[in-house]
Amino acid sequence: AQKITQTxxxxxxxxxxxxxxxxxxxxxxxxxxxxxxxxxxxxEMIFLIYQGSYDEQNATEGRYSLNFQKARKSAxxxxxxxxxxxxxxxxxxxxxxxxxxxxxxxxxxxxxTVNP
Amino acid sequence: xxxxxxxxxxxxxxxGQSMTLLCAQDMNHEYxxxxxxxxxMGLRLIHYSVGEGTTAKGEVPDGYNVSRLKKQNFLxxxxxxxxxxxxxxxxxxxxxxxxxxxxxxxxxxxLTVT
Lengths: 116, 114
Fold this sequence. Notes:
heterodimer, A: mainly beta, B: mainly beta, seven-stranded mixed sheet, four-stranded antiparallel sheet, 11 strands
């Protein structure tokens, strides 16, 4: 069973509008973390935002916010005021502790296209 | 700061050839990881290391070996390359004891096996 599910293979948004990228996760751990990474066409992985399982407030980083709903096991990324440079692949990942190490499990990603 | 670097950036191999990918980090991180990225699959963990001299298997370890002789370096080896190993390989590192365990990624190595 997938631990991280991103149900939107592709999303389109108009420049300056907000967009939500979905992510649901599956874990029985009490302590875990959720990340969003951006991968532009150039290929590098760029860290965007982090949410810890015990954090009571939703994480925000500039135009990025994470809508964390623990009971529903969802960690959606909200991008406000989209820009052309936001066009990229976006990956949701969950940090879990296994085998003495903190590991990341990735979703399959969502390709976001921002239209002018 | 260099962060995480990977050598080489691109490589083409013939089936059966061997090669080693080098990952180096200058952040004194304890944990290091090797991932592969295939279209539509996200990133999958191949092997990881929790410290110098230690290695462990990840989700897709078959066909790969690793070594961590120095804390700053993590090597990924392919002894007999197969077309199924055509992929983009990412190295990452993180510091043990950090609050978030954010992983810092290298730029990737694009490997083609013909």
